[in-house]
Specification:
Number of strands of chain A: 0
Number of helices of chain A: 9
Order of helices and strands of chain A: HHHHHHHHH
Strand content of chain A: under 5%
Radius of gyration of chain A: 19 Å
Largest sheet of chain A: none
Largest interface: A-B, 38 and 38 residues
Distance between the termini of chain A: 74 Å
Shape of chain A: elongated
Oligomer: homodimer
Structural class of chain A: mainly alpha
Helix content of chain A: over 70%
DNA sequence: ACGGGTTCTTACTCGTGAGTAACGTTACGG
DNA sequence: CCGTAACGTTACTCACGAGTAAGAACCCGT
């Protein structure tokens, strides 16, 4: 016994725990400042295990981004109500988005850092999810009578507005979600004329 | 002669050149990945000069952020037309903002990274500028009849929308500025009722 | 024309953190 | 019930980058 043999846990169970630890560390200090030693310690495991399962620092980062991005995107896709009115559909999407942020502060912070950052080898991961959200929003605006030549700009502006509201929310947790949702919905009203 | 004595340049002239070089490097790879050696090379100078003038990596970063932030803020403050209508005032502010971004892509990228990042020791620098812009926008919305209980949320959403549009613009440089400005102004219309 | 402050260099130190080697230990499938 | 694959560890290597010492060349004022 080389000392301190941890409880043995199968890979399928350990991996998500490692990603949880990575989330906390990445969220706290950002990708670059996060060390594999810190993640290992947070996960209660030794560093070579991380390398066994994820190969590299970038590997674990990508795995984490993929999981978080999938979660957010699925929530938004599931929330859409294709039959509804524009305000209904927007409120549903915004609600799903803020739901993710509210339940997953750390995850939001990591995704947020990556959206703006310039890590080329990795940006695609988040950019893909982001453009899927963007496409969903554009589609909704178009279907609900938005000016086709302006929809793209509005979609970008609205996603940015949502992201910024999410950041603000983290600093003012007592703000009711409805305020955030209503703000977005009102602004989107400028994009598509009420019918 | 220890070899390769560069052209001698007084400090008051060399410092801004160093900041220009730092801007390029920070913009390219981000703060953490930027090395002092890279900045020195970009500036055509040796590393100890950077330390002579700025003390540390954080020092040169702060000096740069301060310069860029001051530039952006001054443009926006100067552009406001306190007598005008809401759309006029918003268009003026947005125009000044996009003017900065358009003339200073690299600078925008650096500021942008810092807005979202979690570098506590340094965040205040950009946060200060950002909150000044936020205050200006809130003031305009309030003076022009915005609902006081919602102005804060709108101001955050609008700044986020503007930032996101700026990012989009960098990737689609052929988008006319008017489209960006109009989008923001239209959205802001939801915040304050037309009179 | 020379002293001293400023500009500038080369050539280091030294910590930190990614990634690896080499090796125990558990448990489960045959 | 035992061999072997999966789980897990300690203890390294090695590169890279922040920061520093020590001193050389320049140039201005007196």
């Amino acid at each position: 016994m080389t000392r301190a043999t941890r409880k043995r846990v199968p890979r399928a169970e350990r991996e998500p725990l490692m990603l949880d630890a990575a989330e906390r560390v990445f969220s706290d200090v950002g990708f670059h400042a996060a060390s594999m030693d810190a993640i290992a310690a947070e996960a209660g495991i030794s560093k070579p295990m991380l390398y066994n399962y994820f190969g590299s620092k970038q590997g674990i980062y990508l795995a984490y981004l993929s999981r978080a991005g999938r979660d957010l995107l699925n929530r938004m896709l599931a929330a859409d109500v294709p039959g509804g009115t524009l305000p209904e559909r927007l409120a549903a999407g915004a609600g799903a988005f803020f739901g993710f942020v509210g339940e997953n502060h750390d995850g939001w912070r990591v995704l947020r850092e990556e959206m703006v950052g310039q890590r080329e080898e990795v940006g695609g991961q988040v950019a893909g999810m982001r453009s899927a959200i963007h496409a969903l929003l554009s589609e909704v605006l178009l279907e609900e009578g938005g000016d086709p030549s302006r929809v793209d700009a509005y979609a970008h502006a609205l996603t940015g507005a949502g992201e910024s509201l999410a950041d603000w929310w983290l600093e003012h947790p007592d703000t009711p979600v409805e305020v955030l949702v209503d703000t977005l919905v009102d602004m989107a009203g400028a994009a598509a004329p009420p019918r």
